[in-house]
Amino acid sequence: MNNKLYGNLIFELSHPGRRAYSLPENRFGHHPLPDACRRAKDAELPECDEMTVVRHYTNHSENNFGVDNGFYPLGSCTMKYNPVINEEISSLKAFTDLHPQQPVETVQGALEVEYNIQRALASITGMADVTLNPYAGAHGELTGLMIITSYHQQRGDTKRTKVIVPDSAHGTNPASAAVCGLEVVEVKSTPEGLVDVNDLRPLLGDDIAGMMMTNPNTLGLFEKDIPEIAKLVHDCGGLLYYDGANLNPLLGAARPGDMGFDVIHLNLHKTFSTPHGGGGPGSGPVGVCEKLIPFLPKPHVIKTKEGFAIEDCRLTEEYSTADNRIGGYLGNFLIILRAYTYILSLGRNHIKEVGPLATLNANYIKECLKDDYELPIDTLCKHEFVFDGLKDKSTGVTTMDVAKRLLDYGYHAPTIYFPLLFHEAMMIEPTESESKDTIDGFIKTMHVIAKEARETPELVKEAPHSTPIGRVDDVLAAKHPILTYRQLIHDMESEE
Ligand SMILES: *Cc1c(COP(=O)(O)O)cnc(C)c1O
């Protein structure tokens, strides 16, 4: 069996009795666990020698694609370079060996990191204070919305059960609102792709808890009517929420706090480097304006005369995020540490270059490719933009085909068929970390694929040709999920 073969599970390489370890002889005698604590049957674990294990996982890792393999222009995800120093710092044993329940005197360094990044993020976003507790962007959204509802409830303003969400929002926005028990009211976009202020006005009233906005929005456009929107939402008594998952292009250019936002979440695992994807560990800090500080969830790191301390739940009777946890301890500490390293290594001056460079790169690609690819909203974009497939629709080559063909050329595909506003959406985000050579190489390849689509469309429609497996059935796994190994073996046997 070819050990490069996909789907080769470590279980299939197992031989009873093989071992990859040898434990020292037991000097303390045999003390069996009481029967009540023992499994009825031994766990079915793979039994392999060390070389088999190492090769198995090394070969699988070679079938993977990451930022370290090649250009990864996945829109709305900010797949930027993750500096190696982040990994070095976050692997220091002084950090990895900490326990969240250690006495605070023994973890002053870790608390200082948390406190400092709380302050750094507050300063970058223009908010008064920040909680690092949420574990992902969506978790940050939920936390932020809970802060908003806590605020209204504590004022006895119990009518506010609705939240306004733009039709172009990331799917997590309405989902988080629903989890928070809020009713979602959709506001439409203008043909230019921005929130339609005229559609917004009649939605506002004393039942509105707040409005969520993403800026730059899902089309990569700057919402230029924010001052007016902020005034309208505040005038009706609502609070304004900023989905800052994609803050990258704003770094050094503008601050949500200055625009009138009351709550913001950030995705450290996008804007502040740190590896992500595949559901890996994330971090979605939430920043709030002054009046919402009492509603930040606990625990929270504060600085006192004696050093850094943890403010914990007061556990009062009243319902409020102020007396609730939204996670176990102080967030995903090692992810926070990577982001802190990233912020410190760029420093106050260089972090300001991130936004403008990410914006320049995106606009450069957009302008170079818009003759071959349909650009439905032809305007200055921020860090990303959306094509609506190839310009020449007569070839029958779809966005899916272009995405698959890119794999043959060693590029990760852009985000496709999202946002849902266009049929053949292709969302490209280069980030600031790519060189001009890399970006030019991508542009050239996209031109080559457009030419292939005109001249040899079958070549594109049947791509990829060079990857270990060709086209997979996208919906099979969703419709017939096989979630256990035993099930897989069983099915394979019954097919024979
Ligand atoms: C990625 C993203 C989210 C969700 O973040 P997760 O960490 O995946 O939960 C929310 N909003 C926007 C605009 C995003 O791009």
How does this structure look, described?
This protein is of the alpha/beta class and 496 residues long. The protein folds into three domains: 3-61, no CATH class; 84-350, Type I PLP-dependent aspartate aminotransferase-like (Major domain) (Aspartate Aminotransferase, domain 2), CATH 3.40.640; 353-478, Aspartate Aminotransferase, domain 1. The chain contains 15 helices and twelve strands. Strands 1-7-6-5-4-2-3 form a seven-stranded mixed β-sheet, with helices on both faces. It has a three-stranded antiparallel β-sheet with strand order 10-12-11, covered by helices on one side. Helix 4 packs parallel to helix 10 (333-369), helix 5 packs across helix 6 and helix 10 packs across helix 12. The two termini are 18 Å apart. 39% of the residues are buried. Bound molecules: pyridoxal-5'-phosphate (PLP). Belongs to the GcvP family. C-terminal subunit subfamily. Residues 32-294 form the Glycine cleavage system P-protein N-terminal domain. One of its GO terms (cellular component) is cytosol. The modification N6-(pyridoxal phosphate)lysine is found at residue 270.
Properties at a glance:
496 residues, alpha/beta, Aspartate Aminotransferase, domain 1, 3 domains, seven-stranded mixed sheet, 15 helices, globular, disordered N terminus, binds pyridoxal-5'-phosphate, pyridoxal phosphate binding, glycine binding
